[in-house]
Amino acid sequence: MRDRERAAWRYEGVWHTGRGFIAAIAISVLMMLSVPMTVSAASAKSAAGTASGTVKVDGKALNLKYAYAVAQPNTFDETKTDIAVLLSEKALPPEALSNIERLQPVADKYLHGWVHFLINDKGEPTDEMVEHPALKGMRLMTSGGPGATKATFTSRVFRKDRIEGSFQTGKAVNFLDHTYELKVSFKAPIIEAKRPDPLPNDKTGKKLPAGGGEPGKAYMAFVRAVLARDIAGVRKLHEGTENEPDSEIEKGIEFLTLMMPQDLKVTGGYAAEDKAVLYLTGVMEKERQYGSVEMSRNKNGDWQAGKEKWSNTPPE
């Protein structure tokens, strides 16, 4: 299966800093989901590992001292597990790793100055993101599978409960018109992410018609709001946006207008009480895409859009 980042086509780009809607939207479109287990706040502190090395952007060095690792589902095949690795200048607060679904949003919320990787079940890095003061609120990102990252990974320990190794570029490299150099060794226990609630299916939900019924109408209204750059409409129709400033929603809209397939249609789905899943089709660069979106009711009973997942491989 070719992934959506490779659909982006092997994606390499600048990511706007966002600690709310933009982060959630970007992650939704890039299809980073969640998996097994919970970490209590009391034990979260013990999840911290150590790092030793530096990341340089445009010649400015940042010391990396802390390492964190989380087992989470592979972006496109949830039967497989990726290891997310976060290397940071400062430590996360103890409560940060409680009940997390993915590691990168934790970095978004709590830290400045870090590098984040995804490593597949073969020990190959597939995604790399850099947050550095020299970028002045922007991030560097590359993803799309093995060979996509600027830094190479050398593994020393790769077990279910622990990872140790190093990342390095070898020398300064060009990363979207910035010079980038990484040399860091690390070791960290691996914790597992929280399992998401199951979505409705043919056994637990009511089948929705083409168009998606009421959830489908709400989703297409959200799409129209994005394309119209309607901040109020997006705030109303996407979960978790009620307390976000307009500037964050505007950034999310900007990102979505670039990543959203054209000729988007709702082909069906399933609904159960306050949750639904819609199945989608669209076209990206003349290639048919297949997607799904999670829908949920807010406290007023209105349907709102949530995480999206896209691939160019038809669902089974």
Task: Lay out the secondary structure.
Blueprint: E1 11-16, H1 21-29, H2 41-44, E2 49-57, E3 60-73, E4 81-88, H3 104-110, E5 114-119, E6 125-131, E7 138-143, E8 152-158, E9 162-168, E10 173-175, E11 178-192, E12 206-208, H4 213-227, H5 231-237, H6 246-259, E13 262-272, E14 275-284, E15 287-297, E16 303-311
Parallel strand pairs: 3-11
Antiparallel strand pairs: 1-7, 2-3, 2-11, 3-4, 4-5, 5-6, 6-7, 8-9, 9-11, 10-11, 12-13, 13-14, 14-15, 15-16
Q: Can you walk me through this structure?
A:
The chain is an alpha+beta fold. The chain has 2 domains: 32-192, no CATH class; 206-311, Nuclear Transport Factor 2, Chain: A (Roll). The protein has 6 helices and 16 strands. It has helices spanning 21-29, 41-44, 104-110, 213-227, 231-237, 246-259, and strands spanning 11-16, 49-57, 60-73, 81-88, 114-119, 125-131, 138-143, 152-158, 162-168, 173-175, 178-192, 206-208, 262-272, 275-284, 287-297, 303-311. The strands form 2 sheets. Strands 1, 2, 3, 4, 5, 6, 7, 8, 9, 10 and 11 form an 11-stranded mixed β-sheet that branches. Strands 12-13-14-15-16 form a 5-stranded antiparallel β-sheet. A hairpin with a 2-residue loop joins strand 2 (49-57) and strand 3 (60-73). Helix 1 (21-29) packs parallel to helix 6 (246-259) and helix 4 (213-227) packs antiparallel against helix 5. The longest helix is centred in the last third of the chain and has 15 residues, at 213-227. The protein is globular. It starts with 10 loop residues before the first strand and ends in a 5-residue tail after the last strand. Residues 1-20 and 26-45 have low confidence and may be disordered.
